[in-house]
């Protein structure tokens, strides 16, 4: 197809023009502008060799030499001069087009066409593969694409011309340029020698451009124009001075840290000092385009420099972090200095506009912060009404090994175009060290570049030599313009090196002696660039030295200030402040929680909308009609199942102006077809109705969105979304509870310790379907033992009951773990999450079979005004009314309660055995458990769970029960035996296990004679 278009350029101006025809690749139409008609012809090669075609071209030339391209004009003049009669009148072709002359004419015509096609193919080869020979490595010893092979279709020497059946004599011939290149500037023809020179300048210098895989012509043309236009990569003297000043700050900051703390890990930026001016260029360009907030995520390398010179954190606060004697003024563990985040509003001095910069705190798990940044960016765009990403944007920094090796990068990229997750373009900057920790890239990745993962979303990739500051600045300028123009992701591959090892305490010569011998000889980029500008007369040596001295003085003064009675405040490093939510000291404004009940009128209204289709002429599936009819019947009876309980919670919060966002795999319908928050018209494609958004005229918006089949990326995204505002209910639901396994990094590194490490409150809710129901090991357990093991309350310390004990306990914990057994309690705990004066992550083990269990119902009375979440549900039957007669108290949680209650009734033991439900497992309700234990003074205590003994809740609750009874009484275990797998895959075995532990639970002599 490219050859067909190229031939059109050759014939431009006269003769028959190339048009698309209906006959497919082998048939096209030629249009004769002189005759105004078209005809079918074969493929171009056959057409070009056709004597009738050449004759027609010749007739057109005879009428007017300007009818044909200048190359054809020259050809016919030469052919005429060499014909049988050179003196023949040029208006009489008969003598020319005979015998040998006609054959010669045809051969020459075909050669002209083939040469033009070859040149056009050559141009395309540079556009596609020029980056493979670009001079990207500052050290000059490695190939950025891991391959020293030079593509055979790139003209790196004269003998390579033979690939296109051209030779040295063709270098000075003039060729028509295709419309898919801008190397001509304002010219339409160029000699071949100049074409090659300009292509090498555009694609084979210190910038390598990967973009020809993009399937959008306009975007490709945009990129070509940015890199092919002659002289486009120019900077003014003022811009060069600014670049030099920024490079001075970046370099001298690292030098200062190295002088003052030579034996401290700091993960410095040496070898990629150009990163600082690069980021500032991106921010400057984005600010000029209207961006008001930039949210950034990055690994540890260079973080302190970014904090100091991009975010503009006070230097004395950074230097404080190096004082080993400094004690923290805040509670919590804190984190090492190169993991900390920051939030800062300031004036951009280039644009004179306000801009907010936020660098997210990040653990050493490198790319884990990627989806978190995207979620927070999406949230800020949402709350600002920024539907196109014109006010808020994200920048993600990566290391080369992590970018290529960690799957969350791929997961994050795949969120970039999804309607409910897109942030309308992220600028990715890969600090390409050309090495992992000690691992050579040739054994660390299979792709040519570390950035190849970005190709899956058609993101252009700009490789650039980090030792050419102006090339880096130009690439950053283009990247910012791309993001502002197309609102799509873009990648900058900053090919650099680490002047020291993985950290300053490392010895890289152990594993990479040749690389580090070269690095030791490598001149610093600041020296190179300052010498260049001095030679150009842009700055003088004195001006440069003054700039260096000026920044050194700033660092010294900050260092002195950092020693003057500074206190380490982790709150100064908060990356997501919530104005007006806490007091000035960062404390809750109160330590109480109001009741979470609601008026009957409110419940009825929500129930009516939940059981209807609030859009006219909307045809839903008959099965959904039955579900809605069932809901309506429940509402009439003033009852609710699990789905209605959730509806009540969401709907009531929406009325109060609280945004609710539910995200995850298949959450719109619900994995178990119980929710149906999005109704689909059965007759009109893509026509949907979300009844929750039709509750009130001025309600807050409800967002429910099916996610990609990702847990790590999507949970990280929702965590970031929840960081943006405390006045939102953000929920992530796993398709099955154990699916959180693949998001464990987000849970372990962000959700569980986030407040302790970074003073970061977060109200994210995890909904994890859980229950042993004979469906095999994979979709049974949500692994509650993992969450409980990471709960920080002390099992051996009976807490002091002070103030509002329930709220105080929640404030002291790192997260809340519940397993609700009733729809009403589920509704209460969701509402409590917002009504609390602080935010904690909430882990809810949700049911599967209980979604439709006839006994798992709640009355509207359970949600009446004044009611609230029940951390523990006592036995309300005969056993509860005669506690002194009870012989055994079974404590349990979740679904197993209904199986226990059924078995107790069948065995007629309702007077002898009490069943108590722990709805909130962590923090452990010491006060309520103690009240129940004291109530049943003559009863033995049992903990019953359906999970295996080495899983579930037992290891968590046992020591706490013993603390409650002061180790004077045992708490016996009833449940499945220890096992390696969460559940059996055999239905019969599952039933036998259930029967066995039910028999034990109700055998009143089962534990007689056992030692405690």
From TrEMBL:
CDD domains linked: TPP_E1_OGDC_like (cd02016)
SMART domains: Transket_pyr (SM00861)
Molecular function terms, GO-annotated: metal ion binding; oxoglutarate dehydrogenase (succinyl-transferring) activity; thiamine pyrophosphate binding
Keyword Calcium annotated: yes
GO CC terms: mitochondrion; nucleus; oxoglutarate dehydrogenase complex
Subcellular location: Mitochondrion; Nucleus
Catalytic activity, reaction form: N(6)-[(R)-lipoyl]-L-lysyl-[protein] + 2-oxoglutarate + H(+) = N(6)-[(R)-S(8)-succinyldihydrolipoyl]-L-lysyl-[protein] + CO2
Cofactors named for this entry: thiamine diphosphate; Mg(2+)
Keywords, sorted A to Z: Calcium, Glycolysis, Isopeptide bond, Magnesium, Metal-binding, Mitochondrion, Nucleus, Oxidoreductase, Thiamine pyrophosphate, Transit peptide, Ubl conjugation
EC number: 1.2.4.2
Class of this enzyme: oxidoreductase
Family: Belongs to the alpha-ketoglutarate dehydrogenase family.
Name of the featured protein: 2-oxoglutarate dehydrogenase complex component E1
Protein source organism: Myripristis murdjan
């Amino acid at each position: 197809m490219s050859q067909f278009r190229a031939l059109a350029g050759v014939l431009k101006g006269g003769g028959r023009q190339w048009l698309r025809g209906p006959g497919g690749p082998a048939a096209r139409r030629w249009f004769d502008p002189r005759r105004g008609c078209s005809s079918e012809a074969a493929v171009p090669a056959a057409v070009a060799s056709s004597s009738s075609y050449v004759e027609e071209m010749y007739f057109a030339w005879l009428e007017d030499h300007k009818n044909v391209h200048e190359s054809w004009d020259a050809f016919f003049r030469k052919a005429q001069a060499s014909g049988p009669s050179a003196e023949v009148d040029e208006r009489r072709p008969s003598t020319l087009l005979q015998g040998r002359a006609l054959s010669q004419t045809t051969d020459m015509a075909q050669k002209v066409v083939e040469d033009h096609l070859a040149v056009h193919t050559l141009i395309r080869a540079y556009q596609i593969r020029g980056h493979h020979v670009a001079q990207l490595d500052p050290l000059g010893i490695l190939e950025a694409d891991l391959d020293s092979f030079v593509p055979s279709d790139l003209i790196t020497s004269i003998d390579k011309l033979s690939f296109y059946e051209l030779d040295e004599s063709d270098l000075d011939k003039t060729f028509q340029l295709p419309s898919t290149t801008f190397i001509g500037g304002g010219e339409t023809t160029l000699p071949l020698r100049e074409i090659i020179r300009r292509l090498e300048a555009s694609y084979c210098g210190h910038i390598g451009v990967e973009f020809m895989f993009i399937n959008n012509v306009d975007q490709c043309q945009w990129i070509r124009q940015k890199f092919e236009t002659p002289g486009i990569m120019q900077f003014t003297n003022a811009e060069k001075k600014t670049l030099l000043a920024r490079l001075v700050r970046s370099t001298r900051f690292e030098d200062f840290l190295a002088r003052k703390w030579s034996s401290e890990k700091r993960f410095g930026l040496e070898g990629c000092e150009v990163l600082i001016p690069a980021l500032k260029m991106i921010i400057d360009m984005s600010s000029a385009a209207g961006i008001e907030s930039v949210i950034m995520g990055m690994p540890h390398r260079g973080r302190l420099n970014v904090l100091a010179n991009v975010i503009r954190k006070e230097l004395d606060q950074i230097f404080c972090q190096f004082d080993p004697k400094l004690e923290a003024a805040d509670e919590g563990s804190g984190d090492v200095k190169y993991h900390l985040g920051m939030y800062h509003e300031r004036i951009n001095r280039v644009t004179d506009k306000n801009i907010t910069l936020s660098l997210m705190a990040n653990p050493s798990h490198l790319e884990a912060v990627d989806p978190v940044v995207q979620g927070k960016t999406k949230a800020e765009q949402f709350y600002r009404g920024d539907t196109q990403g014109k006010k808020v944007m994200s920048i993600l920094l990566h290391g080369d090994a992590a970018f290529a090796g960690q799957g969350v990068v791929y997961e994050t990229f795949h969120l970039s175009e999804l309607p409910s997750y897109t942030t309308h373009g992220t600028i990715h900057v890969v600090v390409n060290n050309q090495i992992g920790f000690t691992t050579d890239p040739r054994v660390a990745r299979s792709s040519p570049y570390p950035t190849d993962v970005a190709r899956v979303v058609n993101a252009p990739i700009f490789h650039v030599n980090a030792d050419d500051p102006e090339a880096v600045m130009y690439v950053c300028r283009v990247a910012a313009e791309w993001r502002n123009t197309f609102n799509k992701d873009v990648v900058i591959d900053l090919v650099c090196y680490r002047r020291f090892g993985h950290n300053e305490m490392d010895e890289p010569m152990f594993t990479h002696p040749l690389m580090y011998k070269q690095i030791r000889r490598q001149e610093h980029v600041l020296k190179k660039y300052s010498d260049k500008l001095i030679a150009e007369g842009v700055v003088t040596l004195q001006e440069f030295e003054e700039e260096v001295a000026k920044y050194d003085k700033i660092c010294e003064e900050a260092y002195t200030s950092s020693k003057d009675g500074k206190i380490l405040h982790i709150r100064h490093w908060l990356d997501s402040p919530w104005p007006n939510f806490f007091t000035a000291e960062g404390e809750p404004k109160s330590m109480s929680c109001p009741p979470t009940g609601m008026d009957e009128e409110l419940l009825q209204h929500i129930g009516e909308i939940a059981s209807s289709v609030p859009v006219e002429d909307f045809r839903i599936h008959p099965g959904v009609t039955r579900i809605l009819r069932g809901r309506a019947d429940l509402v009439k009876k003033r009852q609710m199942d699990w789905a209605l309980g959730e509806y009540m919670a969401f709907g009531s919060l929406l009325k109060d102006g609280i945004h609710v966002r539910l995200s995850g795999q298949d959450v719109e319908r619900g994995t178990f077809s119980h929710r149906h928050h999005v109704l689909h018209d059965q007759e009109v494609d893509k026509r949907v109705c979300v009844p929750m958004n039709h509750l009130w005229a001025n309600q807050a918006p409800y967002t429910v969105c099916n996610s990609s089949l990702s847990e790590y990326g999507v949970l990280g995204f929702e965590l970031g979304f929840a960081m943006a505002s405390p006045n939102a209910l953000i929920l992530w639901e796993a398709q099955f509870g154990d699916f959180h396994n693949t998001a464990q990094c987000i849970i372990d590194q962000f959700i569980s310790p986030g407040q302790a490490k970074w003073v970061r409150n977060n109200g994210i809710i995890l909904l994890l379907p859980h229950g042993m129901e004979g469906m095999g090991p994979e979709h049974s357990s949500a692994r509650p033992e993992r969450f409980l093991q990471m709960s920080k309350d002390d099992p051996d310390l009976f807490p002091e009951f002070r103030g509002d004990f329930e709220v105080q306990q929640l404030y002291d914990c790192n997260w809340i773990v519940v397993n609700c057994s009733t729809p009403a309690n589920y509704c209460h705990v969701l509402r409590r999450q917002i009504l609390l004066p602080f935010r904690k992550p909430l882990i809810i083990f949700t049911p599967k079979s209980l979604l439709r269990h006839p006994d798992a119902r709640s009355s509207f009375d359970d949600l009446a005004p004044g009611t609230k979440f029940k951390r523990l549900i006592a036995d309300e039957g005969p056993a509860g009314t005669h506690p002194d007669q009870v012989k055994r108290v079974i404590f349990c949680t979740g679904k197993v309660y209904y199986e226990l209650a059924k078995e107790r009734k069948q065995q007629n033991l309702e007077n002898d055995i009490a069943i108590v439900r722990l709805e909130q497992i962590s923090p452990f309700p010491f006060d309520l458990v103690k009240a129940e234990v004291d109530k049943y003074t003559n009863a033995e205590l049992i903990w019953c769970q359906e999970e295996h003994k080495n899983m579930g809740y037992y290891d968590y609750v046992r020591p706490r029960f013993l603390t409650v009874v002061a180790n004077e009484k045992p708490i016996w275990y009833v449940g499945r035996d220890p096992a390696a797998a969460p559940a059996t895959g055999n239905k019969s075995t599952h039933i036998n296990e259930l029967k066995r532990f039910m028999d034990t639970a109700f055998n009143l002599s089962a534990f007689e004679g056992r030692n405690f």
